[in-house]
Specification:
The chain has 208 residues and is an alpha/beta fold. Helices cover 26% and strands 23% of the residues. It contains 5 helices and 12 strands. The strands form 3 sheets. It has a 7-stranded mixed sheet with strand order 3-2-1-6-9-11-12. A hairpin with a 7-residue loop joins β4 (102-105) and β5.
């Protein structure tokens, strides 16, 4: 099995279940309030303040909310790219131009995702991003990220590596999801910063 495919290892699976269980207890108000706090903190990051293009994602369910941040970036004139899931779990990309530019897409065996409704720009569009917002369930003290295990963002990170691209990698989390250590594999790479409602955890200095 490719290391970019779904991950069956038990340690990560157990941790994912634990974090998802905690997230399932958050209400819509919790998600909305968290999203507002995350947007305020993330917009102060130099990596986003100076970015012309940001690859992001639309939060779903009890994920830390991203909609306030997407709208704020768009209002700033930032080009915001959002993912569209492909059949092989890779990601295509499209531009965000406000709430009306999203469409709900039901993928087999997965929850419905909000994806860009307009033109598809191709998987390599992410290479134009100055910053990439990565979904995750946890990040540890080294900057290692625990994802959901589908492999989509492993493909994105591998594509960035192959192209020699070095955008800022930023994860948005709840405060309790910054932990001491998560399991890692050889292909995993650390992120540069984590934003939570109470602050920013940085693992690499921003570029001048």
């Amino acid at each position: 099995m490719s290391h970019l495919g779904p991950e069956p290892e038990s340690g990560k699976r157990v941790l994912r279940r634990e974090f998802l269980t905690v997230r399932s207890r958050y209400t819509a108000d919790d998600v909305r309030e968290t999203g507002a706090a995350l947007a305020a903190r993330a917009l102060e990051l130099p990596e986003l303040a100076h970015a012309r293009t940001v690859a992001a994602y639309v939060s779903v369910g009890s994920e830390p909310g991203t909609r306030a941040l997407l709208d704020a970036l768009h209002a700033r004139g930032v080009r915001v790219l959002l993912p569209a899931l492909l059949a092989d779990n890779d990601l295509d990309w499209g531009a965000y131009s406000g709430e009306g530019s999203l469409v709900s897409v039901q993928h087999r065996g997965k929850m419905a995702l909000l994806e860009p409704a307009g033109e598809r720009l191709g998987p390599d569009a992410v290479l134009t991003a100055d910053a990439v917002l990565l979904p995750g369930l946890a990040v540890d003290a080294r900057g290692m990220r625990l994802g959901r295990g589908g492999g989509s963002y492993d493909r994105v990170l591998a594509r960035l590596d192959r192209a020699g691209a070095d955008p800022a990698l930023v994860v948005l989390l709840y405060d309790s999801e910054v932990v001491d250590r998560v399991p890692e594999e050889p292909h995993d790479r650390p992120v540069h910063a984590v934003v939570t409602p109470s602050g920013v955890h940085r693992f690499r200095r921003p570029s001048p």
